[in-house]
Amino acid sequence: MKNHSIPYILLFIMLLWHAVLFAQERFPRPEFESGYTYPEHQMPLQRSVTWEYIDVAVLVFALSLTSWLALKKRSRQGLIWMSVFSLAYFGFFREGCICAVGSVQNVSLALFNGSYTIPLTALLFFLIPLIFALLFGRVFCAGVCPLGAIQELTGIRPVKLPKTVESVMTAIPFVYLALAVLFSAMQSGFIICRYDPFVGIFRLDASYTMIVFGVLLLIAGVFINRPYCRYLCPYGVILNLFSRFAGKHLTITPAECTNCRLCEEDACPYNAILPSNTDQVKEDPVKSRKRFIAYFLLIPVFAAAGGFLFYNMAPGLSKVHRDVRLAQEIRIEKEAGIEAVSKAAIAYKETGQTEDELFANEMIIIARFRKAAPWSGVFLGLSLGIGLVSLTTRRTRTEYKPHQGRCYSCGRCFKYCPVEVKKIS
Amino acid sequence: MNEGRNKYQSRRDFVRKAGRILVAAPVVALPLILVKKTSASGYVWQIDPFKCTTCGNCKTSCVQTPSASKCVHAYALCGYCDLCGGYQREGVMKISTAAESQLCPTGAITRKFIEEPFFEYTINEDICDGCAKCVKGCKDFGNGSLYMQIKQDLCVNCNDCAIARNCPSHAISRVPDDLQYIPKDKVPG
């Protein structure tokens, strides 16, 4: 009986196949007699790629001009106008895309995935500000980044935060960067772009929560200047590192520092001015050396701890990937009998893939996360360790100068320097 | 004293130089690593109409309002039917152009008589909000000549497309920008 039915089943499947193939052609194409011609397709193209190269040219031009304004001309006024220009061009005209902050993810996606080739413009947007940071400090932040510009122009009542709050908050960008690179490398989305607070303002169109977040950040930024740059910006972490080794950097005073301490109090809203400390009592060198070595030995411990922590967090982190989320939904449906109602689950069922395929895919993704996530942890551990070591070293400085990593080269301190004022008058 | 200072100075210089080389190395190395994975042209986002399940997320997920993804019509696939599954609301017995019997919530489809018994249906892109209701209607009851595409002149080309993220059938992906549309009546390749 069973054997007899096989040909019929086969025939039925073949007929079904036929039906599937021709499902789209339910109604025959009409044969017009009135000389009707098909209308043209309306498929307007994206603006040409040359525009993106113009963006790169504008970026280089703006960075050069900002460097000149900050280092040579020493004009806060000029830097403000530069911010206005960048906000208008990269912000409102180009609507916040393409931006150097987000390009980190394109680079990470291209580095760790075979299928994605990075557009040259995205690579250039990632590299050029870094090259300028290595030459002249964070001039990109000063007047080119549209996200920085909108905050620079709205930060009018600077209030200084306590140092401890500042140090704790500056850890957030490291975590943000580590996660953003991890998620983009794992093809789980670009979180920097998704949670960009100001792009909605540039486009005058975004989801309600993102607009509220952006506006709240701007309002906070009136008092706590540049909150995004200081406590969130993941690209700032890289710029910070590069700027520490800058060949030339903005200086507070145009000539020689007279140690007048006028810039000490409230010249810099970012706590980025390092005071002269020649009059400080020196610590016993043996004691400080011992502490340095102890903290230095802690670096690998922190790195290992970070790696271990993230290795264990990998399955949790992998939930950012949509396929993992879908697999979990389907598994819950299977085990608890609650019907999966999400659009993703319905669409998945329509494709006719089996659950095993989905679960196998989930396992692959989690395994990839297990492999990659520890490196994010190691990066965070290393950063923490190096940060602690740098706290133990104390340098003698004979003049007031900006901390090259934290300084945004915004030029707010210029007017506090009496040497500067004398020069102008 | 003076000598000691010089010693510190040169050590600090050494650390600076070493640090500079260390951070400059990735800047040089990165383009070299990525040289084969860099393309001069860019990407655009596009919907694969063969994967689209007409869920309606295009309308709500796009960062723009109205959405940059809209319904387009592959005329060559259309049956020019009198009773159109994409035009007429389901369950409407009498064929009419009255608003209440139209499927499109914004009235973006116009119906024009061509010759007996054929009617042409045109999408008014300015009114279409990308809800994909007509696409579903046409897919279920017609030839599937109506389909969703991202209009590239309206798309702001986000680095992370919000609709792609919310597309349940993974129908939206980056396509090379020399191939900006995936026309249903002209299958590429």
Molecular structure report:
The complex is a heterodimer of chains A (425) and B (189). With 425 residues, chain A is an all-alpha fold. Chain A folds into two domains: 52-263 and 400-424, no CATH class; 285-392, no CATH class. Chain A has helices at residues 2-21, 50-73, 76-93, 100-112, 120-136, 139-143, 146-154, 163-169, 172-185, 191-194, 199-203, 208-223, 227-231, 234-244, 285-317, 322-336, 343-351, 355-392, 418-424; strands spanning 118-119, 273-274, 401-402. Chain A has a two-stranded antiparallel ribbon. In chain A, helix 5 packs across helix 14. A two-stranded antiparallel sheet of chain B has the order 2-7. Chain B is elongated, with a radius of gyration of 27 Å. With 189 residues, chain B is an alpha+beta fold. Chain B has two domains: 2-37; 43-176, no CATH class. At the A-B interface, helix 4, strand 1, helix 5, helix 11 and helix 14 of A face helix 1, strand 1 and strand 5 of B. Strand 1 (118-119) of chain A pairs parallel with strand 1 of chain B.
The tally of helices of chain B reads: 4
Ranges of chain A where pLDDT stays below 50 over 5 or more residues in a row are 18-23
Overall pLDDT score of chain A: 89
Quaternary assembly: heterodimer
Rg over alpha carbons of chain B: 27 Å
SSE order of chain A in H/E notation?
HHHHEHHHHHHHHHHEHHHHEH
The general outline of chain A is globular
Number of strand segments of chain A: 3
Largest sheet of chain B: 2 strands, antiparallel
- Terminal residue distance of chain B: 77 Å
Biggest interface, residues from each chain: A-B, 71 and 62 residues
Widest sheet, order of strands of chain A? 2-3
- What is the domain tally of chain B? 2
SS-based class of chain A: mainly alpha
Strand content of chain B: 15-25%
Uncertain ranges of chain B: none
Q: Could you give the count of β-strands of chain B?
A: 7
Number of domains of chain A: 2
